[in-house]
Amino acid sequence: MDAPLLDVVSSTPSQQNAVSQRNSTSEQQPQQQQPAPPQPSSPTRRGSSPNRRRGRMTSHEIANLMTNKARTTKNRLSYDSRSWLTTGLCSILFTGGSFVLMPWLLLTLLAAGVAVLHYEAVKYMPPEELDELKVPSEALVMLGAAMSLLLAFRLNVSYQRWWEARELWGDVLHASRSLLTHCLSHAPADGPVREVAGWAVGFAVALKHHLRGDLPDIIVLAAVASTAVRTVPRRTPSAARRLDALRASGPMLDDGGGGGGGGGCGELDGLYQLLTAAQIKHLAGSAHPPLYAVGRLRAAVERAVGGGGGGATAHAGTLVAAVGAVDMMVRALTGCERILKTPCPPGYVGVLRAVVIIWLALLPFCFAPIVHWAAIPLSSAIAFLVLAVEELAVQIENPFGLDANDLPLESFCLTVQADALRLVDEARDAEGAEGEAARAGSPGSVQVGAAQ
């Protein structure tokens, strides 16, 4: 582990403030009994009783906060479809990046050069010779028609990939909800079902970072939660800066207690509520975190369903349904990897871009003899719009990144965590209420019991 990260783990600002307060209290009141030293944090669950004694939020409150955060987080797909400003000008500006800027500038300079040459040629060349230098408009129309078909097909294929990715993440949401409802109908909420919920959340978080190819946030958070993590992969830019960025991204819980002081990142509070620091450490250290989470999830499902009651028939039916939900997650993982690792054929993309560049380069030669200096802004505007369409196709071809039109994976993960926490917490409350009602009993139930 990097040295700055070890410093953060060994001595956090909250611990330093606590030490200074204890020292000042002991100096001012020497007769008072010294407070007991704080117990070292153990890798317990974030939702355990010490957290509640300290006045921390319950799982249900965290689930409500996560639901609100999933709704209010920066969702690139949330826009006003009736606003021309949002869907038109802003979308074009956000779409145009470095991929569009360089060829657009070169084509604009080419249009300016053609306009200048035409202006000078008009002075020294007769009109008959100028007409021979014009690009036939028929050739430009035919080439433009071919380019339009290729560009439309390219955009359609990219959108199909984008929509398939959205459906696969919808399967992840559906499978997590179905899995928890099946397990909760067969086993108590405080048992292995809580671990099932944790691994379902871990799968969603690990899948998001696996598809983006970056270092999961859970690695750094697991390092803070458990000092047993001694190594951080070399591709980590800076563990300390990464941790500071995570803590500044909207904490819902304060540091300390629970999982060893590694909480505080709102996007991962559900993970710390349901899994221990050791489990998160093993998930982060796996060579394939989503696949590891699926394996642990299947084992937790078998323990949860196999340890409950209800008879062999109910056990078999619930287990088959739960395993089917796990298989749906595996299919979603495989489908997302297929989209990620199979882009559009490079030959098709290369031919399309060659046709686009040639057509855009010929536009100034067709416009300059007709509109003269207006050929520069006209050619530049058309070039920007056509290149923006290709940029849009590139973005939605791989919809798992951070581009303007990519899927909001953060919102999906927050939804999975909020649903898992809410289902487990509400089931536990319902079981507690049913237990109290059963213990209190009613006159009718007592008479029936006596008659039996």
Description:
The protein is mainly α and 452 residues long. Helix 1 packs across helix 10 and helix 8 (137-184) packs parallel to helix 18. It is elongated, with a radius of gyration of 31 Å. The termini are far apart. It has helices spanning 3-10, 13-28, 49-53, 59-72, 84-95, 98-124, 127-132, 137-184, 192-212, 217-225, 239-247, 269-274, 277-285, 289-306, 311-341, 346-371, 375-397, 409-440, 443-451. Among the domains are: 58-95 and 174-339 and 409-429, no CATH class; 100-133 and 344-397, no CATH class. Helices cover 73% and strands 0% of the residues. The chain contains 19 helices and no strands.
Structural class: mainly alpha
Tell me about the biggest sheet?
Answer: none
Question: What is the 3D shape?
Answer: elongated
Q: What is the helix tally?
A: 19
- The sequence of SSEs as H and E is HHHHHHHHHHHHHHHHHHH
Strand residues, percent? under 5%
> Low-confidence spans: pLDDT under 50, at least 5 residues?
1-55, 226-265, 444-452
What is the rounded Rg?
31 Å
Helix content: over 70%
The tally of beta strands, per DSSP, is: 0
* Oligomeric description of these chains: single chain
Mean pLDDT: 73
What is the CA-CA span between the terminal residues?
66 Å
Q: What attributes does this structure have?
A:
disordered C terminus, mainly alpha, 73% helix, disordered N terminus, elongated
